[in-house]
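tool_call: predict_structure(chain=1)
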Amino acid sequence: MKISNSLVKKFLENEFSLIAISIEEIRSLPVRNTYIINANNSKVILKIYRREKQEEDIMRSLDIQTFLTNKDFHIPRLIKNNTGKLLNIIEDYIVICQEFIEGEQLRLVEKDIKDFGSFLNKLQKINYKGE
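tool_result:
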């Protein structure tokens, strides 16, 4: 699954008013590619999904992410496009833009395991019912 950088740059400029300085692919999966975009003196994450039969699952994921953000979980904030939408379409792909949070990848060391345990404890205490 590959979308051209020029198409991504044009999309970011038109839909988010972001001028992409660089685009770095950080994960490539059969159904989704993930990129770090350096734009307008900041970084954002762009997730590009194959469109086929995934829109409902992606919307559910966005709903959960929005719910967790509203409950003060420290997770990447979703970024709406210029028309206020979270879900975006480029050709046959669904595109999500979210903030980039500086940090390190979770490691299997005692401190990270304890932090993750605290996160799971907080997560279990909320009452998510979905829409």
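agent: The first strand starts at residue 20 and ends at 28. Proceeding to next step.
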